[in-house]
Amino acid sequence: MKWNIKLLVGLLLLSCTYAYGQMADYGFKRELTGISEPWHRIVLPDDIFGKVAPSLHDIRIFGITENNDTIEAPYLLRLATGQTSETQIAFKTLNVSRDDSGYYFTFEIPTTAPVNQIKLDFKQQDFDWKVRLEGSQDQNNWFTIVDDYRIVSIKNDLTDFQFTTLAFPQSQYRFLRLLIKSDTQPDLIAASVIRDETKAGTYSTYPVKSSDIKENTKAKQTEIDVALALPVPISRLKVHVSDTFDYYRPVTIQYLADSFQTEKGWKYRYATLTSGILNSIDENEFNFRSTITDRLKILIHNQDNSPLAIDTIHVAGYVHELVVRFAKEATYYLTYGKKDASKPHYDIGRFAEKIPTTLTKVALGNEQVIEKEGDRTIGPLFENKAWLWAAMTVIILLLGWFSVKMMRS
Question: What is the pTM (predicted TM-score) of this model?
Fold first, then answer.
C-alpha cells in the first residue's frame, strides 16, 4: 500500500516537470512568435553571444506541444558571408611602347565579356608607380577608365608588401591600354584580366565602447586596446589613420582568448586573429574568421618610424541566422547556454538545396532564465484544501476497510 501511494505521488510530480524535458539542461530561452509556415529564419540577437558556447553548438529549438511533450526542431546555422567568384578572361598582348609619359602595354580582349580587374606581376620587387588605364573599341579613340592609380611593391628584411591589382568599374572594351608612369622600364612578367563578381555579405556594426592607445617605446610599437559593449561575433576590422603621408606598417590583430585571476590580479591571454600591413594605399580593412569576443588588441609595429595618428576603429561581424523547419504545432523556444553541448546533427543539413530561398523571419521574445530542478522551490503537495480533504477521506475509507477485514479474519 505504501508503495502505491509513493508511485502516485511520483507520477504527479513527473507530469508537472516533464514539459521542461531537455530544456532544463540549458540556461536560457526565448519564445518564438509568428510561426506560420514549415520553414522560417531566426536572426540571432547580439546579446545572445555572451551566453553561448564559442562553437555555438549549444543552440537548440525546443517545442512544447498541447500534450506537454517536448520536441526539437532542426536548424541550419548560416553566416551572411557573401560570395565571390573570379573568371579569367582570355586576352593577348599586342605591343609595348613608350613616350615621355611612360610605358604603354596594350591588350586585346577577343570577347565581349565585361572585366573589372587586372592583376599585374613584375620582376621588380621595389617600386612605386602611378598608372592610367584606357579602353577602346578601335585603337583610335581611347577613353580613360582610371587615372593616377597607384601600384606599389616593397620587399626588404622587415617588409614584404605588394599592391599590384587594378580594380575599376566594369568595362566592355575590345582593347585595354595600360600606361605606367615610370622613368625605368617595368619588367612585366604576367598579367591577368579578370571579371570579379562579388555578392557582398551582410554585416552588423558593433560600437566600440572604449579604445586605449599606448606607445611601447621599447618594442617600437603602438598598442591599442579595444573594448566592445558585449561579446559579439566579429569578422572585420577597419582602422582609420588621419596621417596623410605614406606609411607601411606591419600590424597584428588579437582577441581576448582567456582570463584568469592570480595573487597579483587578473591576467589576460590574447590569441592572433590575423596580421597584415597597415598602409596609405589600401582601405586598411582586415577580414578574419568569425570569433566571439568583447576585447581586441591591435599591435602596430612602427620600427624606427614615428607612431601613426589613429582616428577611429570600426568593428563588424557577419549576421548569424538559423534556418529552421517546424514540423508540428507547438510553443517553440530558442534555447541556449550549455557549455558542454555537442554539435547537433540534423537531416536537413544533407538536403540544403531543398530549403526555400525566401524565408520569413520569426520574432524573438524576451530572454528567460530556465529554472533548474535544484533551484525550484518545492511547494506543498496539496495547495488546494479540497484535494487535502479528498485525500484524507480516501485514507480513512482505506483504513476502515482494512480494520473490518482484520476483525473478520
Answer: 0.77
